[in-house]
Design a protein that fits this description.
857 residues; alpha+beta; Topoisomerase II, domain 5; Gyrase A, domain 2; four-stranded mixed beta sheet; four-stranded antiparallel beta sheet; 19 helices; disordered C terminus; nucleotide-binding; DNA gyrase subunit A; DNA-binding; EC 5.6.2.2; ATP-binding
Length: 857
Amino acid sequence: MTFPQDRIIPTDLSNEMSHSYLEYAMSVIVGRALPDARDGLKPVHRRILYAMYELGLTPDRPFRKCARVVGEVLGKYHPHGDTAVYDALVRMAQDFSMRNPLIEGHGNFGSVDNDPPAAMRYTECRLQTLSTNALLRDIEAETVDFIDNFDGSQQEPVVLPARVPQLLLNGSSGIAVGMATNIPPHNLGELIDGTIALIHNPEMAESELHKLIPGPDFPTGGQILGRSGIRDAYTSGRGSITMRGVAQIETLEQRGRPDRDCIIVTELPYQTNKAALIERIADLVNEKRIEGISDIRDESDRDGMRIVIELKRDAYPRVVLNNLYKQTPIQSNFGANMLALVNGEPQLLTLKQFLTVFLEFRVETITRRTQYELRKAQERDHLLQGLLIALDNLDAVIQLIRGAADATTARDGLIEQFGLSVVQADAILQMQLRRLTALEAEKIHAEHQELEAKIADLQDILARRERIEAIIEEELTQIKTIHATPRRTEIIHDEGEIVDTDLIANEQAIILLTEQGYIKRMPVSTFGAQSRATRGKAAAKIKEDDVVEHFLSCCDHDHVLFFSDRGVVYTLPAYQIPAASRTARGVPIVQMLPIPKDEKITSIVAVSEFREDVYFIMLTRKGYIKKTALSAFSNIRTNGLIAIVLGEGDQLRWVKVAQEEDSIIIGTRLGMAIHFHADHQQIRPLGRSTRGVKAMKLKKGDELISMDILSSQVIAGISTVHEGEEEEDLLENEEELTVEETSGGPWILTITNGGYGKRVPVKQFRLQNRAGLGVRVIKFKSPSDRLASLLVVNEEDELMIVSNRGIIIRQAVDAISTQSRMATGVRVQRLDEDDAIAAVALVPPAAEEEAEETGEV
């Protein structure tokens, strides 16, 4: 077959390929792969939602077969395969794929194990309330443009009139030609807060916006490791966000078999296949690339996810968990690429740019909706004005109509005689006779006045942008009230990442550590002050065989140092310790610190800075005491640092912070106490790798239970015990207190296991040499009672007292009476028969109050 010469067009092949490929690429970019920055939807998703809206599949209507929806979309708007449409519909209904699903599914829509959904002929769907409230409302009010569909038989919207930043809410992913997008989902409430803040301050800095929108919020929960990847994505449009599943180390109790440690995984990173993950772990165990795992079980059910990874007896749980993070998808990266279409062109956007584009789109849609409502109101008012003219000239109008030969003549007569428009004349001719009554006439007058007020209001909205912005804010607030949910994904600190502590509030906090190694952080404000001898509140969900062992008050910016019984110190910033509610159990400390199984934390200290002239005072179980400068602990390695050298069978038990001018007071279980200077004469400074010197002699059957520090101002007027006077001071004679001693403070607070306590004036504890026997500090109420705590307190201090069963009370010091050393004290906390006081700590002054006192800002 030959073609005429005039039909053959010579073309350069490279130019034709370039031109044709560019057209194809732009078609894919705009028509398939990339979402629009305004409503956050790709064409297929937009067409599905609009088709369902046209079918009337609103949340208050019955479900319809998905096959019906897919057929509607294919036949009217989307000339592609039915698989592509159904897959897109299914994803919009999956609560593990979308942070806020847009479609409500009925039937099998797949699972997190990557199980396929049922065929479209079996499943049913309808729109979610969020879709109708936030995406499709006002679509009939000319808020957006419509274009012809693929064959020109129907009209479809170019974009939906979204009321929320949907692109950031549910995220998006797509691969186009030469470019791709991958936007993570976010929390609706946080997005709305950020958008409203941007309305009030369009010049808001990126850092301020990040405080309101701290990071992505994935539908499957999990954790985000570090903030640097989020910051990169929000400020440059690209960033690698490290996601991590939620895993806890627990002890599995087995009947007839020894207890074993296990790792419980309850949440997975976004888009992680659970079944493939379990298979991957099993392969790594079989290949001996991960050691220490004896069994893997999937115990997930309708109540939630639960993957149990049993460990061998000799396995270190923390090491196994770190290997799982390193070698399996329990920890993975989300490569954020914030690419979207703006005015039909692909652009890489920052967080602020996303919200700015959305706000400009909302201004446009509200402007168009207001113009539509204004036009409709003006048209209706125009008709009413004609009816009012007819009512004012009723007899003449009736006579004209009766005398007219036909409707056309009557209409022309009305136009000519009364100056009406064609629309008004037609409305008069169509008016029913019942509307000529006085009551109906009054209704027309009232409606006319209402329309005049409405028209003035709509014109005011169009004339003032601040009115439009107020409407945007009001609509956003309404959606937040109805649809916002709490954040699911926790953002945690990444080791080695530099953190801007200015972005973290320096609030007062309480840190609890139980005997079985569960740690938690709570705001001090959780516990209001209570009167003496009350039962208090439960501070933690404690297991029957667990007790609260360590208790610390600090501020969130402090460094928390954990000293173990083997003389090793570990450290964490206070804000990194997971915050938990009052009734939560906390997290295992082995998830936070690499503590070996045979090692136990015995003391917790909070430090704001590591100074050269301030010292750690360390006291062991056998009574050895040592003083080492804080500066020696400024660089503690991840796996800990040696703090003290211990003798055989000895343990490090207490650590306090002191200066050289201060003094040390030590208490024992049988109610003895010794008080001596902390200067270099009594205790000279030693390095970390030393043992220390003897602190106190102990009676038979006695043991050390507490140590505290007295400042130099307090001990200035206290007398010193001379040689030969020590034994005399042990006599159990009741001492009378002077008025000066009972007021002002400070005092030595003593509290027993049975819940009795008192304040003893400091002056009753004379200074003596180290390694003495000390003096008696309390007379016990019962023979079985023992001393639980000995603290230095002031009149303005508040106490947090915790029992073995996790019951906490917060109490002012001045609620406890002042008595002599030989008194029994008063009841401080009412305890159950099987409970006892475990620990006592002081509430520190607020960081803000300290700043005011020092004049620092």
